[in-house]
Amino acid sequence: MKDQVRYYKPFISPTDPCPPIRVKSYSTPPQLFIPFQPPNWPQFTPFEALKLGTLWPALYSPYQSKSNRSEEGED
Amino acid sequence: MAIVLDDEYYRLLHELQAVDFVLVELTLYLDTHPDDTAAIAQYNQYGQLRQKIAAVYESKYGPLKSFGQSPSGVPWSWNEAPWPWQV
C-alpha cells in the first residue's frame, strides 16, 4: 500500500459497452485514520507548509494524478 | 504610478502567503482545540509577524486591502493594477 493509494478490480462484463478499466485506484489520505488531532504535533516550516498544503507532516497527502498511479495491481 | 515588480516584491508576497497559510491552518486547528495554549501563542506570534510583513509591503508597494484594512497613500490606488492574479 504505497503512497496512500489503494487499488481494486471492478467487475468486467462481456456486455460492457466501453473498453474495460481493469484496475481502479483511490486515495486514502491520513485524516481518514486519525479521529482527533493530538496537540503539539511536529510542523513544517511556513514555506514548506505553503508548498505542501498542510502545516502538519502527519496529514500530508501527495495526491498523485490518476495517470501515474501504476503500482501493484496495475496490469 | 505603476510599481516595479522586483525580487523584493515577490519575496515579500511569498513570505506573506506563507505566514497567512500558517495562520489559516492554526485557525482551523484552534477551532477544534480551544485550550491549546501553545498553538494560541504561536497564532498570536504569527499574527504579529503578518502585521510586520504587511506593513513593510504596504510601505513600499501600496495597500493590500481597502475598507480601512490598509493605509492608503496619495493618490488612492488600491483599485489600480497590478491585481493579485496579474503578478
Structural features, described:
The complex is a heterodimer of chains A (75) and B (87). Chain A is mostly loops and 75 residues long. Helix content of chain A is 9%, strand content 11%. Chain A has one helix and two strands; from the N terminus they run ββα. Chain A has a two-stranded antiparallel ribbon. Chain B is an all-alpha fold and 87 residues long. The radius of gyration of chain B is 15 Å and the shape is elongated. The model of chain B has no long low-confidence stretch (mean pLDDT 94). At the A-B interface, helix 1 of A face helix 1 of B.
Shape of chain B: elongated
**Sequence of secondary-structure elements of chain A:** EEH
Q: What does the average pLDDT of chain A come to?
A: 89
Multimeric state: heterodimer
Helix fraction of chain A, binned, reads under 10%
Task: Report helical residue fraction of chain B.
Answer: 55-70%
β content of chain A, as a range? 5-15%
Can you count the helices of chain A?
A: 1
User: What is the helix/strand order of chain B?
Assistant: HH
- The gyration radius over C-alpha positions of chain B equals 15 Å
Keywords for this structure?
heterodimer, A: 75 residues, little secondary structure, two-stranded antiparallel sheet, 9% helix, B: 87 residues, 2 helices, 0% strand
What is shown here, in short?
Chain A is largely without helices or strands and 75 residues long. Chain A is 9% helix and 11% strand.
Topology:
The complex is a heterodimer of chains A (75) and B (87).
Chain A: E1 5-8, E2 24-27, H1 46-52
Antiparallel strand pairs in A: 1-2
Chain B: H1 7-32, H2 37-61
Helix pairs in contact in B: 1-2
